[in-house]
Structure formats: structure tokens, C-alpha cells
Amino acid sequence: MKVLSKIVRILELFAGGETLSFAEIVQQSSLTRSNTAHLLSALCEKHLLEKTSFGHYCLGSKIFELAGGNCQQNLLNILAQHSADRIAKELNELGVIVAYWQQQRITLAKVHPERMVQLTIADRWFERSGWYRLSSGRLLLALQSDDEIARIIEKIGLPTAAEWPEAITPEKLYKQIEIIRRNRHTVVMRENGNLTSLAVPAQDASGADTLCISTVYLTGRHQLSEQEIIAKLQEIAADLQEKILFHHISMQDINSISSITEDSL
């Protein structure tokens, strides 16, 4: 049982999809170097952990087999949850991670902070929002190819004045798309300006802009400025992107979305 508790202690360090060095594992587990070395060797042998070419450790393929489902999808869900947790903890606001998959906008993770009254308002807004209302939807739409955008528009139609008043014609929509592509972030003011929704992109291992990191908060009520919040989201996005690249996760390689809810925020 003592050995089992030590194994669990080590595996828990990787719950957020982290990659850790031997020294970091020793420090965070509070185990001796000898114990850590023996346990890591056994875990790698069973493919519960994997050792990278540069000496770090990460979750192994056997973990995802035991969890069931698609390995890359399960790991992507873990990484997305970790990023949404960071938004909720570090900004104390709602954290949402969204992906583009087969012309769909898929919510991978949504984490509420421990406080804030505006969440009941935000939830009502999220429930009726789609591609055009939210910053995440607009950002993911704009960063796809023109052919992909055309297919999405053919399927869902152009924005209404209530959804995106600056983009109600094809010409106006593509003008807004060019602005978003240039800025590589979106800021959307909704609910008569009472809510601010921000989103920044992250790329998958193929280099495609298929992921979006976003938050929503009461306008003018956050201690950080809009640019500071965007910078924090970009920091979290860069961390997510680095882990996705390390694990070779590409949205085009994910065949199943059984545990992901389509178009839900």
C-alpha cells in the first residue's frame, strides 16, 4: 500500500497534462531521488508515463487506454480543463476553451470562478449564443480559410443585426473578419455593453488556428485593464499550445467528440 500511495502521488502531478523533469517530480512528490527513479522506471515500463527525448516525463498511452476513448481527445480535454482552471483562478472570471472541429464550434472546457454575480447573466447569454454573438465564435470563424468560412455561412446564414450588427452583409462580414485576422483577438461588448467577452487563439500541432481561449466579465469591473486581460489569456494560450505541440495533438486527427458538447458555452 505504501508503494501504491507513492505511485498515485506521482501520477497526480500529471493531472493537468504537465511535462515534468526528474528534479521537479522529486521536489513536488517529496519522495527520495532513489524512490522516484525506481517508480518512474516502473511507470514508464507499463506506459503509464513516457520519458521524452530531452529527459522530461508526461502521461503515457496506457493511461488513456484505461480511461477509454480516443487518446488524443482525452488528453486534449485534460489540457483544456487545465487552461480553463487557470483563467478562473488567475483572472477570477469564467474560463472557456473552445475548438473548431469539422465546421463545428466545440466547447472543450468551462470553469466558473469561486465568486462573481455576473455568471448568472453570462450563462443566459451563453445559452443563446452561437458563431456570431461570442468572441470565441467570431475568432474561430475568422481564423479559418475563406472556403471553410463560406461553408459555415452556407450552413448557418449571415449574422442578424442582433447577433453582429457590424457584419450583416457578406461585405461587412469579411471586413470584420479581416480586422480579427489582423488583431488575432476579439473583444465583444454585449448585453447593452454590460458584459465584455474576450478571446485569443491557440494552434494545434498542425499549425492550424483551431483553439480559442476566452473569458467574460462585467464591463469596467475588473481590476486589470482589457489589454492586461488579453495578455493573460495569450499567456495561457501559449502554454496550452506548447503542450498540444509536445503531445502532437491535431484536431484533424480526432475522430470522435463523444465526450464534448457541440456549440455549448
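The record above closes out task 2.4. Task 2.5 opens with a second protein, given below.
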Amino acid sequence: MNLPDYKKEASITPYIAYNSIELSDYREGFCEGRLKVKDHHKNLLGIVHGGCVFTLADTVAGYTAMTHGTIISTLNASINYLHPVTDTEYLYCKGETVKNGKTICVVRTEIFGDDGKVFADGSFSLYVMGTR
């Protein structure tokens, strides 16, 4: 399957660009992205805000689902915050399709730092609205 240029698409999406997220790799059933940690991503304790971690995971989960040639929308999501995010220049996220059905795509994500420490993992159910 010839996939669209998701790296370019993500780079011109205002919310994704504002949050310093870029896609680094994708193929059918898989996507990887990263977020450059900036001061506006952190709370008063210097810890990256959980909503920022979730945004990265949701973005990567969405593009993972779209690698199947579909138009999707997040239906349900669950994230487990395993460690506070500190001392990393980038947050990385890998997404992998668990199930690609006719109406629902399930994606598992893992969020980690520069040294490979896993900060969070997530499970996303995405509604398949059509094909691209």
C-alpha cells in the first residue's frame, strides 16, 4: 500500500506543530513520533504535564490507525502514567496496531525518553469512518 506523506501532513497540522510533535517513521500497522520537550510542556515542578504525554500518544495512535488507509477518530483511550517525565530532551512514542477491524482499530502505544525509560503506555480504540 502506498501511504500518504504523513510526516508532511503532521508538520502542517497546527495543534501537532504547536506541541512540537513530529513523525519519524511509519508503515502499515506502526508509527513512531517524538515531541521536543519545551518549557511550556512542563508544570511548576518541572515535570512534563500528563496532557502533553497523552497528546503525543493520541497523535501517534491516530497515525498508526491511518496507516491502514482509513479515516479515523479516537473513540476511547486509556493511558497508564508509570513515571514522571523529567530529564529528557525528547519524548518518543511507538504505536502498533493490535486489531484492525471494519469499524474499530485498536492501537497500543508506549512513551519513553532519550535513555529508553518508559514513562507511560496506552491503549486507544479508534472509530473507522471511511477510507482514504
